[in-house]
Fold these 4 entries.
Entry 1:
Amino acid sequence: MKNLRLRSARAAKGLSQQALADLVGVSRQTVNAIERGDYNPTIRLCLAICRTLDKTLDDLFWEENQAP
Amino acid sequence: MKNLRLRSARAAKGLSQQALADLVGVSRQTVNAIERGDYNPTIRLCLAICRTLDKTLDDLFWEENQAP
DNA sequence: ATGATTTGTCAAGTATATTTTATATTACTC
DNA sequence: GAGTAATATAAAATATACTTGACAAATCAT
């Protein structure tokens, strides 16, 4: 499932995927893959993204109705 | 830095590291390493742990005063 | 419409999360 | 204090996050 909250938070800061990637120290493809949702970043990367975008983990990465 | 909130939440459920590891589908050493804090789990594992312990990401993995 | 920037995607490589096996130590019960 | 469960820790192997380079499609400005 796509991470639209991340995409939205990034857009709200006026950052391209490349710009966010530079700020958090990963490649553009990694940011792209996270937004597309077909993968599983490390918590440290998630934390770096959250701090850069002034959001918390729950804001961007918590999923409410997941497992039973 | 150790993750004492995780340790505390696990203890509050009366689970051993092994028991939590079984519930979330990883090895005991992985849970131990996360609690000891000297590493960097994936967000999916963090989510699985949070759901098992009835906590959110911010409860267990958010760190307030981190980067400048 | 053309050019530039951004985004989606792929394949091959590198770094590292996680497993497995094993041992030592600490706590708990009897 | 012996015996057992829980925790800390390490080395080698495996799975996978992440990189690099490349190219096409989409978006945006001129």
Entry 2:
Amino acid sequence: MSDSQKFTISCHQCSLNGLCIPTSLTFDEMDVVDAEIKRAKPLQKNATVFETGDKFTSLYAVRSGALKSYTLDLSGEEHVVGFFLPGEIIGLDAIDEGQHPTSIKTLETSALCEIPFDQIEALSKKIHNLQTYMYKLLSKEIREDQQLHFLLSKKTAEEKIGTFLLNLSGRYKDRQLSPTLFRLPMSRTDIANFLGLAVETVSRVLTRLQRQQVLKVDGKEVEILDHNQLCLVAFNECPNG
Amino acid sequence: MSDSQKFTISCHQCSLNGLCIPTSLTFDEMDVVDAEIKRAKPLQKNATVFETGDKFTSLYAVRSGALKSYTLDLSGEEHVVGFFLPGEIIGLDAIDEGQHPTSIKTLETSALCEIPFDQIEALSKKIHNLQTYMYKLLSKEIREDQQLHFLLSKKTAEEKIGTFLLNLSGRYKDRQLSPTLFRLPMSRTDIANFLGLAVETVSRVLTRLQRQQVLKVDGKEVEILDHNQLCLVAFNECPNG
DNA sequence: CGGATGGTTGATAGTCATCAAGATGGGTGG
DNA sequence: CCACCCATCTTGATGACTATCAACCATCCG
């Protein structure tokens, strides 16, 4: 198999699994899009993809692994902005100013697809669904940020952590992975930082939920034992009544 | 002057002041865009523009006034998601799902331009700068939400309110209004709700900042007396060293 | 004038941060 | 292969910030 063939195949996977463009691109259109997506580049744990202030040229689709985005304030304190799992797109916050407002680091060995943004701009004028996809992708991020806003401003520590776990669970489920048994790719410190809590609080809540038979926690391994109860903790409500 | 002429003129203002498309549309292109923007519709105080779950068809550019977006949780509690001032665009969070995740109410008499989204989609394939503008607009919102995330998860009540006031100040300044003397269009309750604080805390912080000669507060009228000091309160830092 | 809404002020209590110390565990080098 | 070490995590004790409860004041409007 020639190198360019492998490339095309890997990039078809990008379109289908990585970029997740959901519908109705023709195969020809997919080829055009794929041709612009650069080969996935593998990165070790703790590698920096880009840093605050770096020039923005490309979006990145996560193929495998997990990453965090963060900023540093003047006193050097880290602020975790979000986490990225396979299938998610990195860099949407950088389009506006042409430089990245956040830094990105891998939390474990990861692979990314680089997608030059000027190509997206050019192609999205020709391929209607790609433009629609981009608008929806950006809009979805805004909507999710609003939910996060609610989480951070109104919820207790227990609700925050419950919601966080359910969110991760849902994202794993979307990727055909187990929604009840998974591994936290990030440290307790990162979780605490992201949720605006102290590490100690995260630790305490997790052990409390474990004592209550809602979770089983072993280091980074988490098993959701009682999904309904976890929903109650997170939302004060339960999907089945 | 014919009705259609008036329409065009009002809509040129939309492009320049309302939509704030910053650069390089030709006059012909502006005419095309403007032709699709519906006449500003005036709304009284406390009017509902749309509600959670309503079908999404248009974005709205604020021409005058002020609005808030909010959701209601199951117990009927309101959660204020954000505020909109003249020149800002409402509805970006609705593109993804095709229905509005939030409700919008006017905080005072306001006027909006309705911009059908299918027209934006169609035109942004023809007019490069419009597509770029839309990408940047959406991206900017994401970036600002990240800053809000930081505000809510890490800052104290005083820092939150200081930052909130400076944010408003900046937005008024962008609109050629006084950045030091302005009127809060929203109630203390809305501010508290938005920032994840109790009304009492907002009230206390405002009076404290007034005692410290940082602000002058009279009901909804606010005057920033000591901008540097307010920056210190908000960010622990001061623009001039 | 009186009720309603919104805002301010005071007293108390609860949640969570902070400080401190111990436990666990993964990685490295001897 | 083991021992050590550093980072991460957990657990406990204390205290601070801010929510809550309660009362009072101002303003608006019928």
Entry 3:
Amino acid sequence: MVPALEQHAAWLAKSLGRTDYLPMRPDDAVALAEAGVVVNKYKGTHLFREGDFANACYIIEEGDVELYRRSGSGRSVVSRIGPGAVVGDIAMFQERPYLSSARAVTGAVVLRLERDRLVPLLLARPVLAMRWLVNGLSQLESTQQRIIRLMNRTVLEQVAGLLDDEQDGFGEVLLSQATIAELLGASRQSVNEALSYLRSDGAIETGYRRITVLDTERLSLASAK
Amino acid sequence: MVPALEQHAAWLAKSLGRTDYLPMRPDDAVALAEAGVVVNKYKGTHLFREGDFANACYIIEEGDVELYRRSGSGRSVVSRIGPGAVVGDIAMFQERPYLSSARAVTGAVVLRLERDRLVPLLLARPVLAMRWLVNGLSQLESTQQRIIRLMNRTVLEQVAGLLDDEQDGFGEVLLSQATIAELLGASRQSVNEALSYLRSDGAIETGYRRITVLDTERLSLASAK
DNA sequence: CATCGAATGTCGGGTGTCCGACGAATCAGT
DNA sequence: ACTGATTCGTCGGACACCCGACATTCGATG
């Protein structure tokens, strides 16, 4: 076994959750890593497109991926996911076409898992199936929370909440205002107005494709309201 | 084995999806039915409340259940689910408190599954775990679709879409306007205005806690826009 | 350093929705 | 049939948001 494979195995074990009551033996993770292929995706390329038949799913190891659908004329962003997320598994398990397109917005490293190899593996190793289950349900939970964040909230509150969630270790969010607007289902102008307010409040600093969080306190204040 | 148990087993097999590549042996369904307890819930009673520690999950066999959370002052409806849906499993698998309350809005029959009995069962029978997984992911899909339905859509379009989805075999939707408003995150008045428009258009008829769909064609026309 | 595409900041006009309020209609219980 | 509680229908004012438009600024590319 190559060292890289071991590394991926360890990474997978961490990514699929840390539930104590589901002890994961090392060979479980290794088996999963062996079943997949590590793929390097360049910025802007697609993992899959809406309508393609779902033969495989992907686990994101590095980078950000955007999920979107055509809706009428334009496209609407369903969600944006990062390392640890599993994508395409819904359609894959149901043996149907993907219901959204997945595009790497940064350079990304993903693990591609073919349906024909994954399903037998999960059936043979119940612990992996259970982990996968818990992981998928966690995703469901965060999606539901996003619904709540969208409902009955002004753009200002939504923007503040998003910045609070998305900031990295240095308090930076590297998104254009247009992208934020798409994520929230708002217009770019309204997002700009909200950012202006937060800036004048001293909660953030804004730059080109970059927002720096200065005061998390004020931010969550504007978010909760 | 009592006849009622057989019936529940058959029902469970149907409810957890019909994926051909996951053949479910009869004893799988029976084992699942045996692991749970059938509970009768009267209108208005709670299956569980937000914050309670999640010891069990529920499969709904009859009736409708409403999921809601406290948000600030009032409560906001997360979703409304019917027969076939599984609820409470997210928190249960994660060993955390329930993140929303579940209340029977009609009389309901549910199967209560204790965590301590279910987890070993799923580990012993991978097919069941996989079915559960596919079912949970389907729920995730419909939640995502609901997000899309909420974003960038007028109340009229949302109401038309909801009626199209929720009508039963006779084209009837038995919900009060206030409930519809909660489901969509809109005000009762706006829902009323949308219904008035659809009524004058000849697409629906309205009554006390009842809406009858007359013309599905016009409805989907108003929904798509 | 010149150029061009992309992103930001800002302005009015138009409108969809919320909110409070009120009366009419419907249902359930004594 | 009377009564109280719930639901429906409707109005006008307030306001957050969308949209189009335009100038400005930033960053990559040669």
Entry 4:
Amino acid sequence: MASSRNSKEMETLREHLAKHQLKLTRQRELILSAFLRQEHITAEAMYHQLAKTDPHLGLATIYRTLNLFCDAGLAQARHFGSQTQYDNVSHKGHHDHLICTGCGKIVEFENCDIERLQEEVAARNGFTIQTHRLELYGLCSRCRH
Amino acid sequence: MASSRNSKEMETLREHLAKHQLKLTRQRELILSAFLRQEHITAEAMYHQLAKTDPHLGLATIYRTLNLFCDAGLAQARHFGSQTQYDNVSHKGHHDHLICTGCGKIVEFENCDIERLQEEVAARNGFTIQTHRLELYGLCSRCRH
DNA sequence: GTATCTTTGAGACGGCTTATCAATTTCAAT
DNA sequence: ATTGAAATTGATAAGCCGTCTCAAAGATAC
């Protein structure tokens, strides 16, 4: 907890809260610190994970808080299957996803060349990129047969 | 309708049906011909669209049929927001999006170099790409100031 | 034509997410 | 430290989307 209390993500959250007249609560701190340990997680999964240490934390609060993180730019929601995955944006640069439409397997990757081209495209259109999302859908080697 | 009755997509569907002991129905023909006119559509949108000409066509039938098209390789489901988009696989020109987080402006673009790199990444991981989604979020020139 | 097996349509159902609301907590101003 | 206005929480109801159920209708092979 102490580790996340002074992290740059916590600072980002504080700024976002201040800017929008929102308040820093015990739950928001707790959920942030749990979130920062994950690369991506669903609300349900986090609910079960936190139930061990805080049995009264409500599922609605987790949904609300993860959506708050999205607003603050700390998380990014991604819909897969019937659920929403909340991706940790701060994890080692940004990683993208290869998603198998057959079995749902997800492979993460990073590609600097693609990122550089994205910057070029954005610049050509007068944009400065804050974040991006790239998902490649296809069949993995196993499902292709 | 006559135009789709002999299309190659219709032939693909016929083959799939034959191979799985399924039947060609009036509804399946109707939904296919409507689907082929779209780049991508939701079941709900198609329901409203077809309600004009065929008020008794059930929503469940549309879902079932669009999923059938996915099995047959004619369509591909993609989760977007809270809904499922059914993409027309035969439509090739895929475009990506630049989205301004300030004003919501959306600019469409295409970039062959990025697409080529995507193929490389996929191949390196044993995937064959069916489709992709690339969204760049940032500030447009106007909102940056 | 008829038997058989699939499909349809209408609504019930179930999973995931959001809305509701009284009670509690935060935080800025005393 | 106390107070008071405003935000947040937790429990649960409600909502939305997509699938399942099942009796009636339709398609295909014989």
